[in-house]
Write a structure and sequence with these properties.
This protein is of the alpha/beta class. Helix content is 40%, strand content 16%. The protein has 14 helices and 17 strands. A hairpin with a 4-residue loop joins strand 1 and strand 2. It is globular and about 70 Å long. It binds nicotinamide-adenine-dinucleotide.
Length: 457
């Protein structure tokens, strides 16, 4: 291992580390301990022991000072400082680390905030996916990814009306073998311990949920044969309903009939968004880097008004609406002046190429100055988390119809409220969305850093 908090844990023969940060007081608390004995059989999790009855005979708990010394002894203080810098910047509450040395599993739940999940009447306080990284990946890059995604989850859950705080789990380990119940049981144990309900993200197969549910825990969602199906369809429907509201705001009526809509990416979200838009009478311009996705779309909607364009040329086209449904980071100060759309609103996360909220707001203002209506993506692409919540709460009684009703009405109403509110307040929809949600996450205005509509962080 290179620079790693797990290297420190390994050196002192411990299994758990918590890095807590209180951003109100700018106070850090470190806590390392041995939470289970060597040889604990995690394939027996929730059969022979639970998160509350696990009882290490050789438990060991280090104070903040002793944990700090362990970092010092391993020459890892600069690494620790870099981690703390990221936590401070994003106001992250906790990095909760679990080390399974025999399998080389380095599990970290990046907790941004549990506030929105308090008193929700559920066993989980947070929702955020579980993403695998390669064992050799640089730990600081993995943590940065986890923290950024965790913060995004806090905002997305709050915007979607899902009563859950935001977090994200990163796991550095080799690809998982689903027959290895020791490894799967450990992931279930660690996830349950963090009071997170999760779902497989990049690097983990969606079948992981099926195995966890069969053997260990209900706190995984999104199996391929799950009760409400994949998340792409509800996400696409929420984006579609938000698009109708954007159309109403710009052209006075919600109809998309006759409008040209450019959809970048025809995957789980883009394919179904295309379907909803065609049903609504729109003309489509579409692309995907993957020729098979383009073929699948073209053959599913043969005879419909669809123009297929090469992916590399796509953002140079003109259209009434652009709906990004592929990767993020596609717009910056350089290419915004040449865009030719009236509305940009899609399913992709982090559409703007920004490293902070302030940079994102700057770019949103540039778009507004070009006369392009844009609203930050997490405000309307929460159909995926709403799907996970429906499954977690109702399990086998989860209902696709109820889910689609909730996603549609929530994404439509909130988009209308945000667009009109932003116009009344004289700010961009992105700024208004951040302000509205920050208030519920961080509390009072002073603590949020908002004064008179400007971010001071
Ligand atoms: P996906 O992997 O199923 O589909 C993405 C598609 O985009 C792929 O077919 C890929 O070939 C294509 N693509 C990638 N880069 C491209 C490019 N430069 N030009 C054209 N095509 C390109 O993913 P998805 O689940 O449909 O998610 C799409 C976006 O929406 C992602 O940003 C994702 O984070 C976001 N999102 C998804 C969900 C969900 O429920 N699936 C929820 C919220 C947000």
């Amino acid at each position: 291992m290179g620079h790693s908090v797990f290297h420190v844990l390994n050196a002192v023969d411990l299994t758990r580390l918590q890095i807590r940060y209180d951003w109100r007081q700018d106070h850090v608390l470190l806590h390392a301990f041995r939470g289970w004995d060597t040889g604990t059989d995690f394939s027996r999790y929730n059969h022979d022991f639970t998160i509350t009855t696990l009882h290490p005979r050789q438990g060991l708990w280090l104070s903040h000072e002793a944990t700090h010394r362990a970092f010092e002894d391993q020459g890892a203080l600069i690494h620790l400082e870099r981690i703390l810098h990221l936590m401070r910047k994003g106001r992250h509450r906790l990095l909760d680390c679990y080390f399974h040395a025999p399998r080389g599993i380095r599990f970290v739940n990046h907790v941004h905030s549990d506030r929105h999940g308090l008193n929700n009447g559920r066993s989980s306080l947070m929702m955020g996916g579980i993403r695998r990284h390669e064992p050799g990946d640089e730990e600081l890059d993995v943590f940065l990814d986890g923290m950024n995604l965790a913060r995004g989850m806090t905002f997305k859950n709050a915007a979607a009306g899902v009563p859950m705080g935001g977090c994200k789990t990163t796991v550095q380990m080799p690809p998982i073998d689903l027959d290895d119940l020791e490894a799967v049981g450990f992931l279930a144990f660690a996830t349950d311990s963090t009071r997170n309900t999760t779902g497989p993200d990049m690097g983990f197969p969606t079948e992981l949920t099926r195995v966890v549910k069969e053997h260990f825990s209900i706190h995984f969602t999104g199996a391929p044969d799950g009760p409400v199906g994949p998340t792409g369809t509800p996400t696409a429907y929420g984006v579609f309903r938000a698009l109708q509201e954007a159309a109403r705001f710009v052209w006075g009526e919600p109809s998309l009939a006759g409008r040209s809509i450019a959809i970048q990416g025809l995957g789980a979200v883009g394919h179904h968004l295309g379907r909803f838009c065609l049903d609504g009478g729109a003309r489509l311009i579409v692309c995907d880097r993957d020729a098979a996705r383009v073929d699948a779309f073209a053959s599913a909607f043969r005879g419909a008004p669809i123009e297929i364009v090469p992916a590399d040329d796509f953002l140079r086209r003109e259209a009434d609406i652009l709906s990004p449904c592929a990767g993020g980071g596609i717009f910056d100060a350089e290419n915004i002046p040449s865009l030719r759309y009236r509305i940009i609103l899609g399913g992709a996360n982090n559409t703007l190429r920004a490293a902070s909220q302030e940079e994102e707001i700057e770019l949103a203002r540039l778009l507004a100055a070009r006369g392009i209506l844009y609203q930050v993506d997490w405000w309307h692409n929460g159909g995926g988390v709403m799907t996970g919540y429906e499954e977690y709460v109702h399990q086998d009684d989860a209902s696709f119809e109820r889910l689609m009703d909730t996603v549609g009405s929530r994404c439509a109403e909130r988009t209308r409220e945000n667009l009109e509110g932003a116009r009344n307040e004289g700010v961009t929809p992105t700024e208004r969305a951040y302000r509205a949600v920050e208030k519920t996450i961080y509390g009072d205005d002073e603590a949020m850093g908002w004064r008179g509509g400007t971010a001071h962080r």
